[in-house]
């Protein structure tokens, strides 16, 4: 059996695939593979491990009908045309559950970094602008006892909420399509309408999938409904906020700060104004990037691939 991998995955997973007599071809270039190149690379493969935002769209899927399985190196699957995959009966699997703690850590890190202008302070030193102790500069906002608003309280949102409650005794409010009874019971999370969530949150953290409903949900109109001292955190997908509106909202002090692990587009341009703002912290989509989590993700990928190649039901299907 042959499998194409469009990037790097944990070595232990490669070894397991090889132990199962799978012949691997990997994309090793320093740029994302294009859809045309992907179609070409997968044309005589039995399986495909998709690393990064490869467009698994109708063009790709129709040209790759022979694939026995596609395993995503992510929990998010907004890059997949699920309806077409379903119609063509191509099993597609993801990596749910294993990256919740690491991604929530990243959201927490960004929240704290923004609240204390940490990235700006670091840049001040590296730019050679730290000239004296100045007590009236780089003043942050304390988090203790504040209200955390979670937009999308699933596994990752719940991990983030638990951390905020444990560290800062934050009150947790949330908005979801459906109520999260576990969170309501475990951490007394309070369900609010979307507008109430915006009005009450001191920190608003996004943990929802990118869908047609959530695309650019956070626009100027929405930022205007938030508190002027609110912090916006997005570790989910860059497409959920409108980046130009976010820049404007920060410049015009409609909101106080923002922490982003995801941007639109990715990679972000090095001259993007967000990178030069005091109360902004940006990371290059490293939400789940820990050794432990990458290994766990790769473990689920191997399970999906082996099951798919054997014609069995894959254990972590997206549909
Ligand atoms: C995920 O798992 O969806 C991460 O964002 C990596 O893409």
Automatic annotation (TrEMBL):
D-isomer specific 2-hydroxyacid dehydrogenase catalytic domain residues: 3-316
Catalytic reaction annotation: glycolate + NADP(+) = glyoxylate + NADPH + H(+); (R)-glycerate + NAD(+) = 3-hydroxypyruvate + NADH + H(+); (R)-glycerate + NADP(+) = 3-hydroxypyruvate + NADPH + H(+)
CDD domains hit by this protein: GDH
Record keywords: Oxidoreductase
Gene Ontology, cellular component aspect: cytosol
Lineage top rank: taxon: Bacteria
Cited Gene3D superfamilies: NAD(P)-binding Rossmann-like Domain
UniProt family annotation: Belongs to the D-isomer specific 2-hydroxyacid dehydrogenase family. GhrB subfamily.
Protein name: Glyoxylate/hydroxypyruvate reductase B
Native organism: Pedobacter agri
